[in-house]
Amino acid sequence: MAATHRIAGQGRLTPAKTLRFTFDGQQMSGIAGDTLASALLANGIHLVGRSFKYHRPRGILSAGAEEPNALVGIERDATRKTPNVRATVQELYDGLNATSQNRWPSLSFDVGAVNNLLSPMFSAGFYYKTFMWPKTAWKNVYEPKIRAAAGLGVAPDQPDSDHYSARYAHCDVLVLGGGAAGIAAALAAAETGACVILADEQAEFGGALRFETGATVDGTDGWSWAQASVAKLAAMDNVRLLARTTAFGYYAQNLIGLAERVTDHLANPDRDLPRERLWQVRARRVVLATGAIERHMVFADNDRPGVMLASAARTYLNHYGVAVGKNIGVYTANDSAYAAAIDLKKAGVDIAAIVDLRDNPAGDLVEEARALGIEINHGRAVIRTGGRLRVSSMTIQPKNGGGERTIPVDALLMSAGWTPSVHLFSQSRGKVAFDEETRRFLPGTYAQDCVSVGACNGTDGLSASVEEAYAAGAKAAKDAGAKAARGTKPKVEASESWSRGMLGAGPGAGPETTVKAFIDFQNDVTAKDIRQAVREGMHSIEHVKRFTTNGMATDQGKTSNMHGLAIAAETLDKPIPQVGLTTFRAPYTPVTFGAIVNHGRGALFDPTRRTAMHGWAEAHGAVFEDVGQWKRAWYFPKAGEDMHAAVNRECVTVRKTAGLFDASTLGKIEVVGPDAAKFMELLYTNPWQKLEPGRCRYGIMLREDGFIYDDGVVGRLAEDRFHVTTTTGGAARVMNHMEDYLQTEFPHLNVWLTSISEQWAVIAVQGPNSRKIIEPLVEGIDLSDAAMPHMSVREGKICGVPTRLFRMSFTGERGFEVNVPADYGQAVWEALWAEGQKHDACAYGTETMHVLRAEKGYIIVGQDTDGTVTCNDAGLDWAVGKKKTDFVGIRGMTRPDLVAKGRKQLVGLKTRDPNVVLEEGAQIVADPKQPIPMKMIGHVTSSYWSDNCGRSIALALVAGGRDLMGQTLYVPMPDRVIEVEVSGTVFFDEKGERLNG
Amino acid sequence: MLLIRCPYCEEERPELEFRNAGEAHVVRSADIAAESDEDFEKFFFIRANPKGITFERWRHVHGCARFFNAVRDTVSDKFFMTYKAGEPKPDLAKIMKSVPAAAPAASDDATEDKPKKPAARRAAAKKGDA
After folding, report:
1. Dihedral angle at the C-alpha atoms of A204, A205, A211, A217, nearest 10 degrees?
2. Is the CB of residue A540 less than 8 Å away from at least one CB of chain B?
3. Is the pLDDT reported for residue A310 higher than 70?
4. What is the pLDDT of residue A133?
């Protein structure tokens, strides 16, 4: 296709640099510097998408980030597809591949357009009321169908192969928006030597100077001045310029989120480059120079392709050299559209007519248009448009009614005035104020150290904007601590000025009509929808917004919010400020998940913790399980073994001879100091004062509410030194809990707490042969039962390295836990393994550890307890020091509910059929024949097959469980009811003889 | 992300380094075992949860690891001051005087006709009465 609408001699692009691209498979060409939108328009294409709800043909409305219609999918390859890209923002590159969205089978023939005919069904709030019956149809029929028919682009179906990076930055003055005001502010701030960052969402700085041909600054045209000023800023060491960078969020204490698009404009980006860079900038002062956004006119069928904002048409002409039509109509309620008509007319494009809602428009622009011979119809309105896939005519009428006249056009430009972009100001928690005279919301009360300048501050005209911005930039730098400097203020010699417009629906789209006069193009919200919402009781703008979805699309109502508000206010017969403005929220424009997630995905999503012996376990075929961030060896299958077989073998081997287990992940805390024992007394239920150095005790920690918080074996190494172990998952929070009490409740105690979890690797050697295995390697410790009984701890050496050797057991067998400095963990493990081989010992994993401890009825905090279990519930009353007058939880555990009868207690369960293994979490009932819903009296907390017992075993929390010993209870499952007998919690070696066996 | 001044490190650090630890100045009884059910309920379960000025505990968990106290406006998220654990509860009236900017921030509901009474002052009055 030829670029039929490119006008030679117009615009700033270099025609020689042509780029090829495809749209819906059709080959086209554009010029370097084009956006996808300008390239499509150069090829005479306006129809680029179908609307969200009604599937109406839609064209390009704008030339910037506010675009609601022209959303396309961009595909580089199967792993780099981006839906919902605004064609007005996407820069063209050679080979760009774009497809239209929300249409089937094609853009020009879309089956979904039947929704347009069914539109009475889809009016405001239809979601909430049309499809209420029958109930099940909502889930199965209506919602899937509506969701499939409505919508935007298709989400990518493969992981994104691009990568994203993040930067943090600090600066004195952050200027957001690189139009004339932003540049002036940045110049003023930079001249003081302050550290300045200037960011703009477009590829080039200049903002509205892109289209304002009437601007002259420092003796040159506005655009050239902007480029020269930016070059000057770029040469300064204290200035960072960020183009293609959107300030999407304004957070607390002047923290601004910026998304920099690094490669989206490149044909063949270096894969080492991040696609986007997320900036988090903390600025001493922020200057908001975010400009203003033109509003469309609200009239019937104002959404046809070819109907667009006047400033957009002007941008396409003056910057890209593209005429958006050959015979163009203009419909306006303010002056700025005249400038568009004048520029187009001068470029040789026919202007069919200007239709001005105002009765007596006057001024230089009006005179100039008239002098150029453009027909001006004042006091008139466009009441509808004609055409199907492209506007073909506009029908005009005196604004108070009268004869209609239809004028053929191939494009229609609109301007209802300009809405200051107060988004970031509002996000900063500043309060906007309604200016009655100009009927717009402007920055009112500031909440942070920022200032608004130029159009976003309601300052009209280039001259006044630059003046204000320059002063504000200098002041911001000074407030940030910079010295005053004598700069050279830009001199504006010629200036364009905004003028007032209108809000709400125009003639022909009033309350008495049923026409589709669109307010929100992206969500297909019409003036009628807003009125209906008010009629149906939505009197707050927040309710109107949610009921109609006005302003809730990806464009966040940049062109629609003020119209919607005005119509709601009119319908309510209230002034606009009383109806209120909806809250602006981040992000200003959509931000990719990639930029937000950034490096934090895949292996970098969360740290992986590996023990010192991880490599050995890996080499010996361990299957690992995730326990928090830890990788723990789960079981060690031999050739041909499944998990069940491996665990059975490991369990039997440990009890028959011995096994080695990596217990390094247990939390370990050293409690040291003259008051260490006093501190332990306060943090644990047990008595500690009389525990002799060299002995261990099983400790229970409660929360203040009296429930079990953590447990573990504690060894007293010396009078003033305890080696405390915690559960693997509880390590960090137990440390926090201890620090909290030590620092804030018991600061009088002279104690230090040190986390030593990472410093000590722990090898559990368990089983009847455990002593034989460690004996040859240990130096300086008498391992005899007399010298080192069960529950004792010694310091000495193993394999020549220091060890804290615990004699303790989580299996019920004679056992040791060998603590060695983590660096020696694997070497000591290998030495123990070599010794173990002589006794046919095995390595075992966490599954076997769980089974063996369950055979002995040892609880696991967090599995057999759930934060609502007391010591008494768990059968651990013996661990509570009866004579103690204070410890954390002492009062909580005597609360009425915690001592009441009928609490759930930990018991054992034996299935009647010993081969049946219960499901953990299964519910327990007393009578399986009772009607549903049954009264559930407890649940299974742990359940395993035990080869050592020759049957299944389970632990459960059952209401009043200890009074039900020997009784039969039932576990109803989907396919059957399992009979169980309540038993004690110890299934193996009830007398505990094997601890010394 | 908020900046929080750690009174031990004596500098502002990003919020990521800190963890909130609930209401401050909740005193655990020295003879807690003898406490009545009502008193224990007040101590353990009941929290002020004010809209406005709150006294709360923070821990510089990824820094010096110390617990400290802070005065913050729950509406604007503004920190008025931080101070070391164990120091007396600051006088709210003095804080309000020294920080005239203790004005309420924008709320989500912008539809009210009348300007809202500053939440901070409302909370202040309540504390003063108590």
Report:
1. -140
2. yes
3. yes
4. 61
What is the predicted pLDDT for the residue at A671?
Answer: 98
Handedness of CA A516, A519, A525, A530 (dihedral sign): negative
B14-57 pLDDT, tens digit each: 999 999 999 999 999 999 999 999 999 999 999 999 999 999 99
CA Rg value for chain A: 38
Domain residue extents for chain A: 1-157, 166-292+420-494, 299-415, 503-585, 609-665+762-781+814-860, 901-996
Is B3's CB within 8 Å of A253's CB? yes
**Cα gap A330→A311, rounded to integer Å:** 11
Taking the model in full, what pTM does it have? 0.88
Cβ under 8 Å to B: A residues 268-287: 280, 282
Q: Using one digit for the tens of pLDDT, what is the confidence trace for A5-40?
A: 999 999 999 988 999 999 999 999 999 999 999 999
| Contact between chains at B33 and A891 (C-beta distance less than 8 A) | yes
Number of domains chain B is built from: 1
Do residues A792 and A771 make contact, with C-beta atoms less than 8 angstroms apart? no
Q: Do B44 and A705 touch (CB under 8 A)?
A: yes
Instruction: Tell whether B16 is within 8 A of chain A (Cβ).
Output: no
Percent with pLDDT over 70 in chain A:
97
User: A433 to chain B: nearest residue by CA?
Assistant: B110
The rounded distance, in Å, linking the Cα atoms of A846 and A661 is: 8
Looking at residue A840, what is its pLDDT?
98
State CA A406 to chain mean position distance: 50
Tell me: the pLDDT tens digits for B87-122? Answer: 999 998 888 777 655 444 334 444 444 444 443 333
For domain A901-996, the question of CATH label 2.40.30.110 is answered with yes
CATH number (1.10.287.130, 3.30.1490.100, 3.30.1360.120, 3.20.20.10) of A609-665+762-781+814-860 reads 3.30.1360.120
Q: What is the mean pLDDT of residues A906-912?
A: 98
Which pair of structure tokens corresponds to residue A75?
A: 């595909």
* CB proximity under 8 Å: B 100-119 to A: 103, 105-106, 108-113
Q: Does B17 touch chain A (CB under 8 A)?
A: no
Give the 3-state secondary structure percentages of chain A, helix then strand then coil, rounded to 5: 25, 30, 45
Cis, peptide link before residue A587, omega less than 30° from 0 = yes
Query: Residue B65: which domain range?
Result: 3-129
Put simply, the answer to whether B110 touches A583 (Cβ < 8 Å) is yes
Asked if the C-beta of A449 comes within 8 angstroms of chain B's C-beta atoms, the answer is no
Q: What is the ipTM of this complex?
A: 0.86
- Distance separating alpha carbons of residues A179 and A466, to the nearest angstrom: 10
Q: Choose the closest CB to B33 out of A251, A581, A890.
A: A890
d(CA A307, CA A303): 6
Taking CA atoms, A264 is separated from A91, A178, A232, in Å, by 8, 20, 26
Residue A859, pLDDT > 70, answer yes
Residue A746 has pLDDT above 60, yes or no: yes
Q: Say which CATH architecture domain A503-585 belongs to.
A: Orthogonal Bundle (1.10)
A166-292+420-494 has which fold? FAD/NAD(P)-binding domain (3.50.50)
